[in-house]
Amino acid sequence: MKAIVIGGGLVGAACADALARHSALNGQAARVTVLEPGPVGGGATAAGMGHLVVMDDSPAQLALTARSLELWEALAPALPSQADYHGCGTLWVASDEEELAAVEPKRRAYLAAGREATLLDAAELARAEPNLRPGLAGALRVPGDSVVYAPVVAQFLLERAGATVRREAVAELRDGGVRLESGEMLRADVVVVANGIGAVSLLPGLPLRQRKGHLLITERGPIHVHHQLVELGYLKSAHGNDEDSVAFNVQPRPTGQLLIGSSRQFEQPDREIDWPLLRRMLRRAAEFLPALENISALRIWTGQRCASPDHLPLVGPHPHLDGVFLATGHEGLGITTALGTAELLAAQVFGVPSELLAHDFTPARFDRLPEVAHA
Amino acid sequence: MPERTLAVLTLEGVRVTVPAGTTVLAALQNAGLSPLRRSLSGEARGALCGMGSCSECRAVVDGLTVRTCLTPVHDGQSVQRLGIVNREV
Amino acid sequence: MKSDLWDAVVVGAGPAGLMAALTAAQGGLRVLLLDAQPTAGGQIWRGAAAGQKGAAGDLLRDVASHPGITVLSGAEVIAAEAGKPHVLTVTSPAGLTHVHAARVILCTGATERFLPFDGWTLPGVVGAGGLQAMSKGGLDVRGKRVVVAGSGPLLLAVAAGLRQKGARVLAVAEQAGLPGVAAFGVTAARLPGKATEALELAAGLRGVPYWADCAVVRASGQDQLQTVTLRRGRREVTLACDYLAVGFGLMPETRVAALLGCSLDAQGAVDVNVWQATGVSGIYAAGEVCGIGGVDGALLEGFVAGCAASGQINRLHDAPRRAEIQRRFQTVLERSFALRPDRLPIPSPHTIVCRCEDVRHGDLQGFTNWTAAKLQTRCGMGACQGRVCGPVTETLYGWRFGGVRAPLAPLPLSQLLAEPTVLGPP
């Protein structure tokens, strides 16, 4: 089988890997070509936090993230040490009793999805994370969540897939293949569009929007955090609507540094740092972790999430183009769900079973999907 | 030549008196506090560039990690080497 | 209403910046002079006192006493955006401050080029300009055994300066060949002022071996430098010493210029016209940031930039001629001390390239560009953000280091949490 994957980020790399493995299981040698004009894992893959986290905004999201975490756990022993896979778990921190009340249904949902989750009261939370400010109500601890350094994983998966990586940009999707910007035509049985927001330039009108985020990484130590910390308000305050928003999200990196997020802004396609928004984001973080005042920032950057209207990725066949599959629109969960996405894609391509097929991730769930754009 | 004034600071718990206008880096070096830090793989490290570029001379001064080559001494300062505060793995 | 707009903001208070600030203020501009170091003077005049005998003392005094100039020391530019006005964001112990400028004169000087060899990360291995700076900052070098190595005329100045402070300079090891060094000496001797300087240097170095064609092989020691091994011709020489002061010339410090969108020439210096104007409207540059040429050229360029920024064209009558002489000096300097691959240190696979993240030469094989290597190995992701290893990879691997972004220096979160202030003219 010949496959082309457009995009050398983690989603593209995971898809390449899954196509190669399933093809081999079918007794066919797969020849996978990945088209990536930039460095491997150099886009949203490098810009994001690299969290592996179960989320339950919707049943489909819960299923996809929970299955993905199982796949990450299976992959972890094979990863190189530079992938910085670190099973730190997540604490969903409740500021008050109202937020704490929301924890129990969340816990039950996680358990039903096969993910361990335990309730911490205020004292247990303070013991688990002494640097959090006093007076918090408690937390939901999800021990199976992890963090990872995604660009290294992308490179690892591409090598494992035996994929050929070509530093080329795609100009156009064609029946049975793609035309490169160099003019060259490449033919394939399967074409996977996995280049994040770049998919819009190949398929104008895809229901995808950029959602900009800011991140800051600190120097190493001396403030220690043991879990990924997220405010439960994340679900209600943050990021529910179209306004600019910030939420507390801090991650301990295996390097001893803290990675601090998060912000969301629609329609800000530039890479500039929005200093006032960054300040809001950091103030939110410092409300939870006052000791942040005593450390320095090494690097600040922005990235673009690729968001769909229902906050679920588009994974599956393009309704009008034979052999073309999409794997994009992962918003802030592309690292977490890359492996589940790849499993789902392989299930669709090869007709093998996957529990994820129970949910509709296909691009066809949106009424209006464009025909191919002809240059 | 104006008379040079002195500053009294604490280097890892030891009070030292140095001329004002000295950098914290020079105070650490003159006190024989080497290495300034351990690298990720455990190597001993000291200052390199002396002018704020390389960050090798970082130390914790009054609770904040700073580049000591850019930091003048002053009375009452408390200085700890990085490795002491943050045992880097 | 009081305006927050400065007529001119000068970044860097070395010779070029001091001269540019003074000249612009004499032309009637309200000038803010920013400097990262605790005191003005730049690296070359570090520790000089206002009013002391000589050019440095005079200029420092004139700048300090001019009512049109505000000096802010210990202030680093961490972000910059060109526009109307240009906005610089500055960190200092007082916090984050925005500065609005009608004109910016970049006099950010130069930094030292380091190249890796086994043992270069040992305490005691320092920059050549680095050891000079440390000594000026109060490091006691009396009786210390120092080997000065690498390349460029700075090595001689460093050796002489350290000797004056009581160090025992065992040798100066220059990678360039004797013909080049001699050509440089001849040209320098012909320039007004430089002959005396050269004689003084020679007197200060009497009895110190000067080895041309000499390569640094390795530094050795247990947690502290103990010996340095050099290669002279085919012979290796090992010297026991306390410091190896090693630098491979100076590089223009162009990071603020890059954030402002100024273009660079093939040598990595800021591109300027005869008026020291960059291609970005209202932004000038002077001194080593425009090419490594020494203090006389820097003063002259600072003067030209100060005149141009303040419209004092009448004062510039013979400046172009003098600038031409300085540019010739610069060309000879570049040619005389051009780095020669067969005289540069040779890293082993185990040699550290990125000191912050302990990334080794061997880890970086197989990559073809800076970004890919950084993403996969963490090279350049540490505390210095590639300021040391970025240029190293340019020399060793021919990559283009593209890592300049705000903040340009580590930034205390306490400063990012507070509302920034705006510093306007008095």
UniProtKB/TrEMBL annotation, chain A:
GO MF terms listed in the record are: oxidoreductase activity
What are the FAD dependent oxidoreductase domain coordinates in residue numbering? 3-347
The question of whether Magnesium is a record keyword is answered with: no
* Entry-linked InterPro entries: FAD-dep_OxRdtase, FAD/NAD-bd_sf
Keywords linked to the UniProt accession: Oxidoreductase
User: Might you report a single GO cellular component term?
Assistant: cytoplasm
Does the keyword section mention Oxidoreductase? yes
Note one Pfam family from the annotation: DAO
Could you tell me the superkingdom of the organism this chain comes from? Bacteria
What's the protein here called?
D-amino-acid oxidase
The organism is: Deinococcus marmoris
UniProtKB/TrEMBL annotation, chain B:
Gene Ontology terms for molecular function: iron-sulfur cluster binding; oxidoreductase activity
Cited SUPFAM superfamilies: 2Fe-2S ferredoxin-like
Q: Which CDD domains match?
A: fer2
UniProt keyword annotation of Oxidoreductase present: yes
Ordered alphabetically, the record's keywords are: Oxidoreductase
Supply the name of the protein. Sarcosine oxidase alpha subunit
Automatic annotation (TrEMBL), chain C:
Does Oxidoreductase appear among the keywords?
A: yes
Q: Does the keyword Oxidoreductase apply?
A: yes
Q: Which UniProt keywords apply?
A: Oxidoreductase
The Gene Ontology terms for molecular function here are: oxidoreductase activity
Q: Which InterPro entries match?
A: BFD-like_2Fe2S-bd_dom_sf (IPR041854), FAD/NAD-bd_sf (IPR036188), FAD/NAD-binding_dom (IPR023753), Metab_Enz_Cyan_OpOx_G3PDH (IPR051691), Opine_Oxase_asu/HCN_bsu (IPR017224)
* Domain FAD/NAD(P)-binding: start-end pairs: 7-293
Which Pfam family, giving just one, matches this sequence? Pyr_redox_2
Q: Which PANTHER family match?
A: ANAEROBIC GLYCEROL-3-PHOSPHATE DEHYDROGENASE SUBUNIT B
- What protein name is recorded for this chain? Oxidoreductase in 4-hydroxyproline catabolic cluster
Source organism of this protein record: Deinococcus marmoris
From the broadest rank down, the organism's phylogenetic lineage runs: Bacteria, Thermotogati, Deinococcota, Deinococci, Deinococcales
